[in-house]
Design brief:
It is built from 19 helices and 16 strands. By secondary structure, it is an alpha/beta fold. Helix 2 crosses helix 4 (42-51), helix 6 packs across helix 7 and helix 13 runs parallel beside helix 14 (335-345). It has three domains: 7-66; 77-262, Ribosomal Protein S5, domain 2, CATH 3.30.230; 297-475, Rossmann fold (3-Layer(aba) Sandwich). The protein is 39% helix and 16% strand.
Length: 477
């Protein structure tokens, strides 16, 4: 970053700190406008604020000069830190400056008063992420200053310069925005990018770490792996971590920023990686994201769209349950269980004329509403999932009554073909499971899924599931 600005402002910025008078500090801050808090050294801002302290007409303008400006928050927020190339010639400027920014969707162009090279890097970020299917051209993501009016006035030219190291914070910010995540003001990043080789080393680490730690309270700073050794030697108490060097071609921005993104519980990609090690990491990220979502509807949608297909695939490969045309299951509060069971017994591919998978949802009065919701969801997607659900409310209270009721119900449901029936014993109270198992017709298939449960969120821990299945004829003599 250099400091090409108008003559009056340039003269003020070139004033030696030792001879700087309060009025000169005030004039420099006034000329810079909203950028003053981001560009001027703290001691210059304090001197400027002291100059106008007794004049109430300046109180609103002066107030921000007495503290550290807040980093932007909310969807799309991000910030870059750049070193002033002419800091020795312009001693009033910080050695490095932070520029608060935000990504906005459905825009025609980047903000025209952003530095030209910063706009170039922003274009590179969008292009690289689009190549890796993280965003699309239709999203029309563009970069803007975090607040209106920040770049108005004669201070804007002070920002012009080179911004190669802005790639990492801009890419992380856009990945967060596209994944509906928000930044953490204590977590920073810097790093350049090369299309063929991925993350690249940068200059000015000492100045960047200093402003992040001393003024903005950063706790973690991600730097290119090539810079990690130097960064740790001048870390200033910050936890310095690496943005990984690419191990494959073309380099993946998500792989490089993986450790950074995990901290934000960013929504993982919907498709698992092919490489085994990356798939294991993806499963961990999916689990962390699912268990941390405060919104139950959002968590449920993510489970159905992203986690459940992979759990089905994994369980079917490890412990295949015979594919049948009828499934009976007990409805419980675990909204994922019916879909998991359905995925285990339903064929992966359907041919024209194949019969619908019939699903019998067994429930008591307490679970009637949940059963009807599940029935509605399955039937609304019957064409896609090739399934049709029916509810049955049982009334029995004792084991004998439940066993008789289940036996009659299953006899009618299997239509004289028990080998086409699978019974899921995963959900429900133990007396219901025992009664249902005792009522299972000879020749049908029975299975049960098990897995870990997260008490804090009240949700299953994804990818801890296992399944056991057997044929009733094999166990009933």
């Amino acid at each position: 970053m250099n400091a090409e600005c108008d003559d009056e402002l340039a003269t003020l910025l070139e004033t030696p700190l030792a001879s700087l008078r309060p009025r000169q500090a005030f004039l420099a801050a006034r000329r810079l406008g909203l950028l003053a808090s981001w560009l001027l050294r703290p001691e210059v801002l304090r001197k400027a604020a002291d100059y106008a302290a007794d004049d109430e007409t300046w109180s609103d303008i002066v107030a921000p000069w007495r503290g550290i400006p807040p980093l932007p928050q909310g969807l799309g927020a991000c910030w870059v830190v750049a070193v002033h190339e002419q800091r020795r010639q312009r001693p009033l400027l910080r050695d490095a400056a932070v520029l608060p920014l935000r990504w906005a969707r459905d825009q025609q162009s980047h903000h025209p008063r952003l530095p030209a090279d910063l706009r170039r890097v922003a274009d590179q970020v969008v292009d690289v992420l689009a190549r890796h299917d993280e965003v699309t051209a239709a999203d029309a993501w563009k970069l803007f200053p975090a607040s209106d009016g920040l770049l108005d006035g004669p201070g804007q030219p002070c920002l012009e310069g080179k911004y190669p190291s802005a790639w990492a914070p801009l890419a992380a910010g856009l990945l967060l925005a596209a994944g509906h995540g928000k930044p953490d003001p204590t977590v920073w990043a810097t790093g350049a990018w090369d299309l063929e080789h991925g993350i690249q080393p940068i200059d000015g680490l000492k100045q960047k770490l200093a402003i992040a730690a001393d003024e903005f309270g950063a706790k973690t700073f991600y730097v290119p792996e090539q810079n990690l050794g130097d960064a740790k030697r001048v870390s200033l108490g910050i936890d310095v971590r690496a943005i990984a060097v690419a191990t494959r071609r073309p380099p993946s921005p998500r792989d490089a920023l993986r450790d950074y993104l995990v901290r934000f519980r960013l929504r993982p990609t919907s498709r698992p990686p092919e490489e085994l090690g990356e798939r294991v990491q993806w499963e961990k990220e999916c689990s962390a994201y699912f268990l941390s979502r405060p919104d139950e509807g959002e968590a449920r949608a993510f489970y159905f769209d992203t986690i459940l297909p992979e759990v089905r695939r994994s369980l079917s490969a490890k412990s295949p349950v015979p594919q049948v045309t009828r499934l009976a299951t007990i409805v419980s509060k675990g909204y994922w269980l019916v879909d998991l069971a359905l995925g285990l017994v339903r064929p992966l591919h359907f041919q024209p004329g194949d019969p619908l998978m019939e699903v019998l949802l067994l429930h008591d009065a307490e679970m009637e509403s949940t059963a009807k919701d599940i029935q509605s969801r399955i039937n609304a997607q019957s064409e896609m999932h090739h399934s049709k659900a029916t509810c049955y409310k049982f009334k029995g209270a004792t084991f004998a009554a439940l066993n008789e009721e289940f036996r009659d119900c299953l006899r009618g449901f299997c239509g004289g073909a028990p080998y086409q029936l699978a019974i899921d014993l995963t959900a429900g109270r133990r007396n219901l499971n025992l009664a249902l198992h005792a009522a299972a017709p000879r020749g049908c298939h029975v299975f049960v899924c098990q897995g870990d449960f997260d008490r804090e969120s009240g949700r299953p821990k994804p990818f801890t599931e296992d399944v056991d299945s057997w044929n009733v004829g094999d166990h009933s003599g």
